[in-house]
Specification:
Subcellular location: Mitochondrion matrix
Number of helices: 11
Radius of gyration: 22 Å
Strand order of the largest sheet: 8-9-10-7-11
Shape: globular
GO molecular function, one term: oxidoreductase activity
Protein name: Pyridine nucleotide-disulfide oxidoreductase domain-containing protein 2
Keywords: FAD, Flavoprotein
Number of strands: 12
Structural class: alpha+beta
Function: Probable oxidoreductase that may play a role as regulator of mitochondrial function.
Helix content: 25-40%
Largest sheet: 5 strands, antiparallel
Mean pLDDT: 94
Length: 356
């Protein structure tokens, strides 16, 4: 339990709760859920430019990272098709991969196929079911994909001014504007209570909020004087109590709760809002193909990690289909902006290709 570890090393409740956010981020779990300590480790075990445990903003927004990868691939001769949905994986008579079929009927032939989609989409939607072992299909169906995350993107006409650290008269970003700001983290019990509400099917009345202002470091993301604010919030259940839909009313009601919380820390925030985009778990699934809205393609609990990710005996990136590989967050070592699963899968695929 992360709660026990934090109690052993720290006295300050706000510090413990702030550290605990990385132990529950993207997870339908509380700091008192067994295995939550690993999720914290997962988020601090890496490094950025030699600084261990550090995170950073991508200049130009997260899409710039995808563009950088695309440019590197194109420079090595890769052909990139965008806005071309895959219909299914193409198999030969011998059961080996022969490529993929696009929704417009185009066949893209290849001896190897690496899927960055979730295990659920890759194996339950794109792969002919009769070609997969029944026990493997059942294991993929049973992966826990519950998600507590609602992402809210906000445009504001001025920087938030927090009671704890008011803005200067010139309105320039201060050091805390250039960091991750954690709200409703005065104590780990608040995170636990927010989790309990979501397990009952209700969006948290005092949600955990991670607030980032990337335009404070990258002014090109917004017009002069304005800013973009990224709100990573939880807990919100994928399915609301009583089977109620996440309709526009439910979305706005939850967003209003989040904004009310921010207003208590930074009076005037609500008045500064120009626009907002609310992405609940069903929205994240529909738009980005995240099963259940889970940002990691599946829970990062200990029973779904290492040799069991995505399923026991299939943690080595190969699948039951010869030539089909899994290279996304649903593979070992799991989610996060690090590319480890893709790099490892590429090595495995190259090794098999040389044998071919």
């Amino acid at each position: 339990l992360l709660g026990q570890i934090l109690d052993q090393w720290f006295e300050s409740e706000p510090l413990k709760a702030t550290l605990a956010t990385d132990a529950v981020i993207g997870a339908m779990a509380s700091p008192y859920t067994p295995g939550s300590g690993y999720v914290l480790l997962h988020h601090v075990m890496g490094e950025l430019e030699g600084q261990r445990g550090a995170w950073g903003y991508v200049a130009g927004g997260m899409g710039a990272l995808s563009q950088a990868i695309a440019c590197a691939a194109a420079a090595l001769g890769a052909h990139i098709f965008t806005e071309k949905a895959v219909c299914h994986v193409l198999l030969g008579m011998d059961g080996r991969v022969q490529g993929v079929v696009l929704q417009d009927g185009t066949e893209v032939r290849s001896k190897l196929v690496l899927s960055n989609a979730s295990p659920q989409i890759t194996f339950l939607e794109l792969t002919p079911q009769e070609q997969l072992p029944k026990d493997f299909v059942q294991q993929i169906q049973q992966v826990d994909t519950r998600s507590p995350v609602t992402k809210i993107n906000v445009a504001v006409d001025r920087l938030p001014s927090f009671l704890a650290a008011p803005n200067t008269h010139d309105g320039q970003p201060l050091p805390h504007h250039q960091c991750s700001i954690h709200l409703n983290c005065e104590g780990t019990h608040l995170l636990h209570q927010a989790f309990i509400e979501a397990t009952d099917g209700h969006p948290s009345s005092r949600p955990m909020i991670e607030l980032c202002i990337p335009s404070a470091l990258d002014p090109g993301l917004a017009p002069r004087g304005c800013h973009v604010v990224s709100l990573f919030t939880q807990y919100t259940p994928s399915v609301l109590a009583g089977g109620k839909p996440w309709d526009e009313q439910a979305r706005n009601a939850y967003a209003d709760t989040v904004f009310d919380c921010i207003e208590a820390y930074a009076p005037g925030f609500k008045a500064s809002v120009i626009g907002r985009d609310i992405l609940t778990p069903p929205d994240l699934e529909r738009i980005f193909g995240l099963p259940g809205g889970n940002i990691f393609h599946g829970g990062m609990s200990l029973d779904q990690l290492y040799f069991a990710r995505p399923a026991p005996s299939y943690s080595g990136y190969r699948s039951p289909i010869p030539g089909l590989y899994l290279c996304g967050s649903g593979a070992h070592p799991g989610g996060g902006v690090m590319g480890a699963a893709g790099r490892n899968a590429a090595w495995v695929a190259l090794e098999d290709f040389r044998r071919l």
